[in-house]
Every structure is written in structure tokens, then in C-alpha cells.
Design brief:
about 500 residues, Aspartate Aminotransferase, domain 2, Aspartate Aminotransferase, domain 1, four-stranded antiparallel β-sheet, 17 helices, about 35% helix, about 10% strand, globular, binds pyridoxal-5'-phosphate
Length: about 500
């Protein structure tokens, strides 16, 4: 069966904007100084001596420049982006419209609360919605990302243990499938990491946990559904066991896509949970853009939340700074407010039923891929999955094409690859998260393409080893590209 997709070349020879520059050409008229009563004089050290070297181009050239650049990289507005654990779902444009309203976007964080009641209402309503969604009591919107949410919660756990037990305790337990941010947050919060091997079924090994639990354990951190895409079916028993030794239980809820309206961390016995608004609630991310990782906690932990917390009385909103047990501030001002507006817009426009339908569709889509792709690829754990499915590229590796080669070959077909080589406990892992926002036709094209790539692996593994063939750049040193990125046009600056 032929795929509907064929390998397609991207434009790679778009001229750079500096090459289009012609002296005197311009796309805009800057008003003369006449509106200023008198010329402003700048201190000597601040005045520019030479005109800046800017490209001189017409407006349409600028427009085409950015439009062409935007398709040289992959993004969700261009095509399917099944990057597991990262939830690259479609970002509805209404979220952007709301975040851009001048009443939100033109605020200053220091202006008095009385002048920005609408913005504070957004903070209050989003906090309430997240408390309801997680089944927990109180929420901070300050953390800028999931990793910072983890650290915030662990610092709260520390403060809680000191307040109630006189000492912070020593250790935090994680399963070996944990996201890399978990051990990092544990160490930064001053704890030791104790990593437990998962069972052969991909779930937490409850008897290993039992052996590891004692009064030195401050907390268990666990992702549910876990990073191999499975629901921890013994979760209530697990949270009870940790509580029995006086420990707290943290849910890494970066990705709540399988749970909305179906199951709540608070009901499973979790004490705290962060939520990545930039994953579950459709706010755009990637490329280091702003995220938001609010943390929801039980009533017992609420006094330790970062200051300030939003307060409502009789329809009036204010910030409550009077919180003697608070761990303090974790972000300048109140967090990434624009992301909060987008997430609340998504929640309100979906409604409760819509959020549940979203999760159901995310689960069905992942299981559809699991069953169809299972014909050619090994499924890491042969059980119904939640919102993502983890495959192993072991069979293809035996034919000469590794998971990295499969991932690069997908680029030739215009798809972003799935997450690869994570979770670490699966050989040659391919972690696929289709999200709820893709039509069946897209999923079918993706399936056909991966089946075609499997045939290519058998017939001509070199084709995959040398992929991508059609992208503006070929195989990159990805670490150097991220760490030593050079975006200068002029070599001398
Ligand atoms: C994405 C993710 C994180 C980290 O979130 P950031 O916003 O990238 O800091 C933590 N845990 C899991 C399971 C994740 O998927």
C-alpha cells in the first residue's frame, strides 16, 4: 500500500533579509520629531554614534521573510507533531485573541489591584477551575513551568515536615520511569533521590515501595498516567502506604490529558500536583517560550503556598500577602499571566463536558495508533494505554535502522518525530502522543507513513540512516545547536 504522503522538499534557499536590503528602501514612515516639545538630550554614554545596521526593505519583503522562515522549522500550525509527553496540541486562536485584549496585555504588574479587577478575576477563576479539575483545595499560579512547579511543591513539603515533624526528612522516592525534571527538582530542594525499578508491567512495583518506605521518606513523586502511558491502577493503595509513614505524595501532573473530567489526583490521595497549562490546556509552547506550571495542594499544605495568593470577598479581588508559613515568592510578580488567560479561555470555551470529551478523544487516538502500529512495531507494554503510547524500535534496529533514523526519516514526510529514547526503561523508545486535536485522516497518514518507513528499513536501511533528505539542514549536532546557537548575520558582531 502506498502512502498518501510523499517525500517533500522544503524551501531552503529563501534569501535572508539582509541580502534583500537596498539603501533607502523602507516599509514604514517614522514621524518626524515635531511631536516632541523640545529635543531630548541623552547622557553621552547612552547616545548612539552610528546608525544601527538594519535591513532596508519593503513591508511585503519583511512579511515574506518571516513567513518563509516559519516553515523552515516544524510547528503545530504546519503539521502533526506527536511529541510524547510534550502535548503539542492545536492552540485555538480564540486563546490568543483573549490574551491580546488591551485590558490584559497592557497591564503593569505594579498597578493597584483596584484598577485591574478583571485580571485578578482571571487569576481567581483559573485557580478555582484547577482546584476542581485536580480535586485539590488551593492553587498557586506562580511557577513558570512544570519543573518549577515540582520545586515549589517540594519546598512546600519541606516546610510542612519542618512545621509538623520538626525536620524536613531526607529522601524522595521516584520510579525509574520518572521525567528527568523530577530527580533534578528533588536535589535542588535538598533531598536525596531514591529511584525504584518499575515492574515488568511498566507500573510501580508496590512491594519495592513497601520496602523503601520509612520515616526518612519525605515524599513519593509519581506521574499518573505514568511516562510509559499506563494508568497506575494501584494508586490509592500507593498513596495510603506513603501516608502511613507520614510521607506526602506528589503527582507530576504535567500532562493531565487523559484525566480531565474522568479522574482527579485529589481523589487518588495525592497531596500536591502541578499542571502544565502549556500542555493540557492548549497554550503554545516549544522553543523555550513561556510556560506555566501551577501547583494545586490539599488544605493541609495551603498555608505554605507561595505569596501572594489571590483572595476574593464579595466580588472584590485582592492579593493576600499576610501568610506567615509561605515559602515566599517563586516568580517575579504573579507568574506568566498571558498563559493564564489562554488556559482559562480554553477551559471556559470547552466547558466541563468538553474537557472530558477532550480526554476521551486523546485516549482513543493513542490506542488507535497502538493497535495499528503494533503490526510493525513492538508495543513496549501490551496493555490499553492512556493519552500516549510507547513503541520500541528494536525490530527495525535489527534491520539496520535505529529509532533516531526512523525519527529523522519522518521529517522527510513532513511529520515531527515522536519523543525518542525516553522513557529510558524502553529500548529504542518512540513515545507517541497524538493529542485529541487531530482528525482520523491525519492519524491514518501517520500510521501509513510509519509502516512505509518500516518497509524502507527492511529494503534500504541506508535511506533512513542518511535521513532527513529534504529539510533545510540535515543531521545536526543537536546539543550544540541548542547550547551554542548563533543567530547573527554579521560575523563581526
Ligand atoms: C513536560 C514534563 C515535565 C516538565 O515540565 P516543563 O514545563 O518542561 O518544566 C515534567 N514532568 C512530565 C511528566 C512532563 O511531561
Amino acid at each position: 500500500m502506498a502512502t498518501k504522503r510523499s517525500v517533500r522538499a522544503l524551501q531552503s534557499e529563501t534569501p535572508l533579509i539582509f541580502e534583500l536590503s537596498r539603501p533607502g528602501r523602507t516599509g514604514c514612515e517614522i514621524p518626524a520629531h515635531s511631536s516632541l516639545a523640545k529635543p531630548v538630550s541623552l547622557p553621552d554614554g547612552l547616545a548612539r554614534r552610528q546608525a544601527p545596521r538594519l535591513p532596508e526593505v519593503a513591508e511585503n519583503q519583511v512579511m515574506r521573510h518571516y513567513t518563509n522562515l516559519s516553515v523552515r522549522n516544524h510547528h503545530i500550525d504546519r503539521d502533526f507533531y506527536p511529541l510524547g509527553s510534550c502535548t503539542m496540541k492545536y492552540n485555538p486562536r480564540v486563546n490568543e485573541d483573549m490574551a491580546a485584549l488591551p485590558g490584559f496585555s497592557a497591564l503593569h504588574p505594579l498597578q493597584p489591584a483596584i484598577t485591574c479587577q478583571g485580571a485578578l478575576q482571571v487569576e481567581h477563576e483559573l485557580s478555582k477551575a484547577l482546584a476542581e479539575i485536580t480535586g485539590l483545595e488551593a492553587v498557586t499560579l506562580q511557577p513558570a513551568a512544570g519543573a518549577q512547579g515540582e520545586l515549589t511543591a517540594l519546598l512546600m513539603f519541606r516546610a510542612y515536615h519542618i512545621k509538623h515533624g520538626g525536620r524536613p526528612r531526607r529522601r524522595v522516592i521516584i520510579p525509574d520511569s520518572a521525567h528527568g525534571t523530577n530527580p533534578a527538582s528533588i536535589v535542588i530542594a535538598g533531598y536525596e533521590v531514591l529511584e525504584l525499578a518499575s515492574g515488568a508491567d511498566g507500573l510501580m512495583d508496590v512491594s519495592a515501595l513497601k520496602n523503601a518506605l520509612n520515616e526518612d521518606v519525605a515524599a513519593l513523586m509519581i506521574t499518573n498516567p505514568n511516562t510509559v502511558g499506563l494508568f497506575e491502577s494501584r494508586i490509592s493503595e500507593i498513596t495510603r502506604m506513603v501516608h502511613d509513614v507520614g510521607g506526602l505524595v506528589y503527582m507530576d501532573g504535567a500532562n493531565l490529558n487523559a484525566l480531565l473530567g474522568i479522574a482527579r489526583p485529589g481523589d487518588m490521595g495525592f497531596d500536591a500536583c502541578h499542571i502544565n497549562l502549556h500542555k493540557t490546556f492548549s497554550t503554545p509552547h516549544g522553543g523555550g517560550g513561556p510556560g506555566s506550571g501551577p501547583v494545586a495542594v490539599t488544605k493541609a499544605l495551603a498555608p505554605f503556598l507561595p505569596s501572594p495568593v489571590i483572595h476574593e470577598a464579595g466580588g472584590a479581588y485582592s492579593w493576600d500577602w499576610d501568610r506567615p508559613d509561605s515559602i515566599g515568592h517563586v516568580h517575579a510578580f504573579f507568574g506568566n499571566f498571558g498563559v493564564h488567560v489562554r488556559a482559562l479561555t480554553y477551559i471556559l470555551s470547552m466547558g466541563a463536558d468538553g474537557l472530558r470529551a477532550m480526554s476521551e478523544a486523546a485516549i482513543i487516538n493513542a490506542n488507535y495508533l497502538r493497535v495499528k502500529l503494533g503490526k510493525a512495531y513492538e508495543v513496549a507494554y501490551d496493555a490499553p494505554c492512556m493519552h500516549e503510547v510507547v513503541l520500541s524500535g528494536d525490530r527495525q534496529k535489527a534491520k539496520g535502522a535505529r529509532t533516531a533514523d526512523i525519527a529523522k526519516r519522518l521529517l522527510d514526510y513532513g511529520f515531527h518525530p515522536p519523543t525518542v529514547y525516553f522513557p529510558l526503561i524502553v529500548h529504542e523508545a518512540l513515545m507517541i502522543e497524538p493529542t485529541e486535536s487531530e482528525p482520523k485522516e491525519t492519524l491514518d497518514e501517520f500510521i501509513e507513513t510509519l509502516l512505509e518507513i518500516d518497509r524502507e528499513a527492511a529494503a534500504n536501511p541506508k535511506l533512513l540512516q542518511d535521513a532527513p533528505h529534504t529539510t533545510p539542514v540535515r543531521r545536526l549536532d543537536e546539543a550544540a545547536a541548542a547550547r551554542a546557537l548563533n543567530i547573527r548575520y554579521f560575523k563581526d558582531r
